[in-house]
Design goal:
alpha/beta, 25% strand, single chain, ATP binding, globular, binds adenosine-5'-triphosphate, 234 residues, 4-stranded antiparallel beta sheet
Length: 234
């Protein structure tokens, strides 16, 4: 087994008195796509936000290339090479497409991603580069959010429900871009509501149920009944 890129070990997360994650263990190896599925409220977004340094964590609960990063701030996590594509995109509404993309590159990590490469991946963004980001369609805005994360030249990209609210044709377009993103030194963790989609684009899958890992398996071979049980708890 290769050395893990990212490991979660007994990760807990709280919002005030409410505990959202209970002892989550997860492993991500270099170059793979790991899918995280689970019902609404299972803790998927919380897990990604914990990794990204947006929630307080025990230092050793999150390890990046063996180093404890659980107590780092979000900007420090980003500086290590972990980028989040947040649920709801969170673009800068008054800025243009290109300005949003350029902001993603401001951490200045060196790597293969540039404006041109993002435009090659999503040609529509080049056409629309001077438009205000809010004037784009939902799917195009999602492309900006992905492009902005890639501009930071991350080693790991965390994608939170990138297909939410998008038309099937746009979802297909975005997922077709995934092989051009992952590999070549880039690894992905994707949170996805659509289970079939999650399984088809990933090598391994985790299911969360009420803040706990209820299943871990190989995406291509995990029995469908096991997923149903892990997802719904039946
Ligand atoms: P969804 O698929 O609906 O986005 P999720 O699996 O991403 O769900 P989370 O958003 O991580 O789930 O939420 C996990 C639990 O934490 C839920 O019970 C939710 O109500 C709670 N929660 C999330 N954010 C907060 C917050 N800011 N304050 C208090 N509770 C929160």
């Amino acid at each position: 087994m290769p050395d893990a890129l990212l490991t979660l070990q007994a990760l807990n997360a709280h919002y005030g008195d409410f505990q959202a994650l209970y002892g989550v263990d997860l492993r991500v190896d270099p170059g793979e796509v790991v899918a995280v599925i689970g019902a609404n409220g299972a803790g998927k977004t919380t897990m990604l936000r914990s990794i990204a340094g947006l929630l307080k964590n025990a230092p050793g609960a999150i390890r990046w290339k063996g180093q404890a990063i659980g107590a780092l701030r979000a900007d420090q996590v980003a500086g290590r090479g972990i980028a989040l594509v947040p649920e709801g995109r969170l673009l800068f509404p008054s800025l243009s497409v290109e300005e949003n993309l350029v902001i993603g590159g401001q951490l200045g990590r060196k790597g293969p991603w540039s404006l041109q490469r993002v435009y090659d991946l999503f040609p529509i963004l080049k056409e629309r580069r001077h438009q205000q980001s809010t004037s784009l369609s939902g799917g195009q805005q999602q492309m900006v959010a992905i492009g902005r994360a890639l501009m930071a030249n991350p080693e790991l990209v965390l994608m939170d429900e990138i297909s939410l609210g998008l038309a099937p044709v746009i979802i297909r377009q975005i997922y077709e871009a995934l092989p051009g993103i992952v590999g070549e030194g880039l690894t992905a963790v994707i949170v996805e509501q659509d289970i079939a989609k999650a399984l088809s684009v990933s090598q391994r899958v985790y299911c969360l149920q009420e803040g706990r890992v209820s299943l871990e398996g190989q995406s291509q071979t995990v029995p469908r009944e096991d997923i149903t049980r892990a997802y719904f708890g039946v």
